[in-house]
Write a structure and sequence with these properties.
By secondary structure, this protein is an alpha/beta fold. 42% of the residues lie in helices and 16% in strands. The chain has 15 helices and 13 strands. Strands 3-9-8-7-6-4-5 form a 7-stranded mixed β-sheet, with helices on both faces. The longest helix has 20 residues. It binds pyridoxal-5'-phosphate (PLP). Pyridoxal-5'-phosphate (PLP) binds next to helix 5. Its cofactor is pyridoxal 5'-phosphate. Its EC number is 2.3.1.47. Pathway: Cofactor biosynthesis; biotin biosynthesis.
């Protein structure tokens, strides 16, 4: 017997049962959600592009040109001019040789990790990495090691314990060879901006360690892309890190880009390797080309409208200042992801519900998405929020938590 209802009841009792609210409006800061008008503070649509008129128009005219479905996988007949143009533009935007579109970020991570490492190799991941990165590491069959969150020294120890190149410097990087041909590879994998904590990975230090140990570094900048850096190129622009420093860059299109899908950017050989070997690339239907065309317009807006990033910074700092004055349990985040640590799952849900009743949508994040006893409210901002709404949220939070 599959005792499903027993397990479901158990989840309910622990405050861990998840459910969905139904949204009846376009994405944006004002939502109609479960029939109620609320101000949205939990979307990843950081720049307010998901419902931008230019993006919508690009989508509409592309549907006249390309129809809706892509018809097949990229390697069969689904790779349209729209996909190809977007890949070229994303490569130029990120300063990488090439970029490759994936249907989702989850698939990009599963595909990239398992194409680069396998049995006999090692993958080293930050403990708080996004589930898709952890799952990709497990799927790959490589030896799987996790280092403490942001702890470069712990990572060094883990690398030092494995066989080769302990303290060596100036070793050339391995070029991606098919798996199992002699060298044992090591891939270090991290979120750029941590999705549930909002803090930023020590990418420069990780890159230095990777070089010293002849490993590659993969950064998933799902929450930095469009948001960080003067031009919105993300954490790698902010830290001035090139393709030689971070060999594998993953970006998602469903967040600041406001559309859907994802990409991996890097060297010519990396992208060719993924086209040959990344199963979640090869064996899935290409994104609808209309999505690619809409995303090309998002990319133009990301590049030309720096005020959206500036506004996000202002809103974030206003929130942090106000929250500090109120003594709210902020976390060490400088990004537009500003979690409020609650602890108990039931309490996080209760606060989230109280906020909903006051007209604010803020999601409670519970284990296993975050560690046990680290349930939190995940507050996020959009360039479309007004300062007054930040102040109103702070008032509501103070009431709901007191
Ligand atoms: C959202 C997210 C993903 C998954 O991207 P999707 O396109 O939604 O599948 C991957 N990594 C991180 C860090 C994310 O936040």
């Amino acid at each position: 017997m599959f005792d499903l209802s027993l397990k479901l009841d158990e989840r309910s009792q622990q405050g861990l049962r998840r459910s969905r609210r139904i949204v009846e409006s376009p994405q944006g800061i004002n939502l109609i959600c479960d029939g109620k008008a609320v101000v949205n503070f939990c979307s990843n649509d950081y720049l307010g592009l998901a419902n931008h008129p230019d993006v919508i128009n690009a989508f509409k005219s592309a549907s006249d040109k390309y129809g809706v479905g892509s018809g097949s996988a990229h390697l069969i007949c689904g790779h349209s001019r729209a996909h190809h143009a977007l890949e070229e533009e994303l490569a130029a935007f990120t300063g990488r040789d090439r970029a490759l579109l994936f249907s989702t970020g989850y698939m990009a991570n599963m595909g990239a990790i398992s194409a680069l490492v396998g049995r006999g190799d090692t993958v080293l991941e930050d403990r708080l990495n996004h589930a898709s990165l952890l799952d990709g590491g497990l799927l790959s069959g490589a030896r799987f090691k996790r280092y403490a969150h942001g702890d470069v020294e712990h990572l060094q120890n883990l690398l030092g314990n494995s066989e080769a190149n302990k303290n060596s410097v100036d070793i050339p990087h391995p070029s991606p060879l098919p798996k199992g041909e002699g060298i044992s590879r090591r891939l270090i994998v991290t979120d750029g901006v941590f999705s549930m904590d909002g803090d930023i990975a020590p990418v420069q230090a990780l890159s230095a360690v990777a070089k010293r140990h002849d490993a590659w570094l993969m950064v998933d900048d799902a929450h930095g892309l469009g948001v960080l850096g003067d031009n919105g190129v993300g954490i790698l622009e902010e830290l001035k890190l090139s393709q030689d420093d971070v060999q594998v860059l993953v970006g998602t299109l469903g967040k600041a880009f406001g559309t859907f899908g994802a990409f991996v950017a890097g060297s010519e050989e990396l992208i060719e390797t993924l086209i040959q070997r990344a199963r979640p690339y090869v064996y899935t239907t290409a994104l609808p080309p209309v999505i690619a065309e809409a995303t090309r317009t998002s990319l133009k807006l990301i590049q030309s409208e720096g005020w959206r990033r500036e506004k996000l910074r202002q809103l974030t700092s206003r929130f942090r200042t106000g929250a500090e004055q109120l003594g709210l349990p902020l976390m060490a985040s400088t990004s537009p992801i500003q979690p409020i640590l609650i602890g108990e799952s039931e309490q996080a849900v209760a606060v989230s519900n109280a906020l909903f009743n006051q007209g604010f949508l803020v999601s409670a994040i519970r284990p296993p998405t975050v560690p046990v006893n680290a349930a939190r409210l995940r507050v996020t901002f959009s360039a479309m929020h007004e300062e007054l709404q930040i102040d109103q949220l702070l008032d509501a939070l103070a009431k709901a938590i007191a």
